[in-house]
Amino acid sequence: MLTKGRLVGTTLLTLVLATLVPGKRKLGGSEGFLIMFQSPGDDTTSWWNLGGWVNKQHGIEAPGVPLTRVPGSIETGRWYDIRVELEGASVRCYLDGKLVQEVKRPAMPSLYTVASREEETGEVILKVVNPTATPVQTAIRLRGAGRVAKAGTAIELTADDPERENSLDEPLRVVPRQRTVRGLSEQFSYRFPAHSLTVLRLRARGVRVTTQVVPGDCPRDPGPFRGSHGNEKH
User: Fold this and answer.
1) How high is the mean pLDDT of the chain?
2) Where are the beta strands (DSSP E) in 111-150?
3) In this structure, are residues 100 and 94 in contact, taking their beta carbons and an 8 Å threshold?
4) CA-to-CA dists, residue 6 to 10, 48, 62, 87, 162, angstroms
5) What are the domain boundaries of the chain?
6) From CA 133, how far away is CA 89, in angstroms rounded?
7) Residue 148 CB coordination number (10 Å)
8) Which of 44, 108, 132, 170 has CA 20 to 30 A from 214's CA?
């Protein structure tokens, strides 16, 4: 429907690569309309504002992207063909077959991590959130840990669908799963499932332990250490 000249969508459009938005027409009002788009696995919503700012400019409004506007207007009663392309970090917006705007979105963190140590047991506790729709193979390094027990504990909370939730009929659809993890050392690899919260409990000896979590397999030469014991984002 149209409200004050803006198209208010009740359905979120997920546009992958080249997707043609059905023809749009402005029926009235002082401005044009919004074309919403979203990448698969992305919880943020962006839009292309056509005929905004008193119907004088077009602009892409997306999280983390500086607002850029170009001159343009939307005519009342005219049909428009609109296409939005999402390819990697690039967003390209076409109006009637002509490229009008193109921006690049910043890379989003693939993992959110925090590390702490339980003094009584000597355990290093690593909490990792993977908000993406793809499992992430990760290199984990414990500097200053001394000896690390070869076995530890992993507690994972995950689901194939991020919208899945428990109900009275199915109270155990999404529950934490605990398992033993083997083959641990000062440096090891771990695969964090998609849409997951993982808690790793690792026994390590050492007065000061620093933790680094880096997406990717463990290299032979770990290179310079830049992480620290505490909150990190990667």
Assistant:
1) 77
2) 112-118, 123-130, 136-143
3) yes
4) 13, 12, 17, 27, 31
5) 2-104, 112-233
6) 16
7) 20
8) 44
Read off the pLDDT of residues 119-130 as tens digits, 9 standing for 90 and up: 788 788 999 999
Residues 153-172 as b or e (16 or more Cβ within 10 Å = b)? ebebebeeeeeeeeeeeeee
Q: Look at strands 57-61 and 68-71 and give their pairing.
A: antiparallel
In the chain, which ranges are E strands?
Answer: 2-3, 6-7, 17-25, 33-37, 46-51, 57-61, 68-71, 79-87, 90-95, 98-104, 112-118, 123-130, 136-143, 151-158, 177-182, 187-192, 196-203, 210-215, 231-233
Q: From CA 21, how far away is CA 12, in angstroms rounded?
A: 12
Whole-angstrom Cα Rg for the chain:
24
Locate 131 and state its tokens: 């908000």
pLDDT in tens, 161-201: 878 888 899 888 899 999 999 999 888 999 999 899 999 99
For the question of whether the overall pTM of this predicted structure is more than 0.70, the answer is no
Instruction: Answer whether 194's CB lies under 8 Å from 133's CB.
Output: yes
| Assigned CATH for 112-233 | 2.60.40.1180
